[in-house]
Amino acid sequence: MLKTPDWGMMIVFYFFLGGIAGGSYFTAAIADNFGGPRDRQVIRLGYWLSLPLVLICGILLIADLGVPARFLNMLFTFKFWDPMSIGAWMVGVFGLFSFLSCVLSLSSSEAMVTLRRKVSLVGTLAGFFLASYTGVLLSATALPFWSEARLMGALFLASGASTGMAAISLLLFLSGGSTGEAWGKVKRADRYSMILELVILAVFLGLLGSAAAPIIQGQFAPLFWGGLVVAGLVVPLVLDFVGSKAKTLVALSAILVLAGGFILRYVLLMSIQA
Question: Which residues contact 241 (CB under 8 A, 6 or more apart)?
Fold first, then answer.
């Protein structure tokens, strides 16, 4: 019998927060490189949101390993076959880019802005890797269901983008920045990312076929269908379309997207270990 990795809630939160960190950084980088002066708040929020989240990811990895020295050992000894080793390295690399982008965002000089934009383009690659590599590694295991889930990395990446944008739009709402053009841009981008996530999820389930039983049947089915598909994707999309001018509904949509992103990772990780 194959042994499951016995991952708990700390790893679920690590996957979830890593996805938001990568998605928020990506949103900031896109606004930084292709937006205008009105997107300045989105740029700062995205960069400064990614930094504490990636720090928390590092803390969660250390806590899950039990001994801080093991985390440091993984940073100095790279093991490409060990998901925790790759995770430790990617947390460190992406954390460095997040820190640099945050520091550079404090300056408005043309030279610093140009440097920040170049840094963000490379940092986005690290953020994408952090958001999606866990799904790729899970699908590369020999465990049932995970080994059949070839699109898990793409699903995690799409979810990271949507949750990152949802987090930024929620922060804009809470900080009173939901009246500007940047708010509308982020919400439209989040809408497209949710549609993409739904499409990938449908293809993901179609390719899995009967192998999807651990998540679409049994004890995790209500959470998957009701929590992720309905409350985490369909309802937010409906709220975005019918209540696009009602900012409280759009904020509620963002909260539901974040909850759906968490449920996605919880169900995919826990169903195989139940």
Answer: 191
| Per-residue tokens: 242 | 């019918």
pTM for the structure as a whole: 0.90
Q: Which two tokens stand for residue 86?
A: 């790759």
Q: Say which range, 5-19, 26-40, 72-86, 94-108, has the weakest mean pLDDT.
A: 72-86
Region of 79 (left: φ > 0; alpha: ψ -120 to 50; beta: rest) is: beta
Number of domains in the chain: 1
CA-nearest of 226, 237, 168, 167 to 196 is: 237
Residue-number span of the structural domain to which 250 is assigned = 9-270
Q: What is the CATH number of the domain that holds 45?
A: 1.20.1630.10
- The pLDDT of residue 262 is above 70: yes
Q: Examine the pLDDT at 1 and tell me if it is beyond 50.
A: no
- Give the SS3 label for residue 190: helix
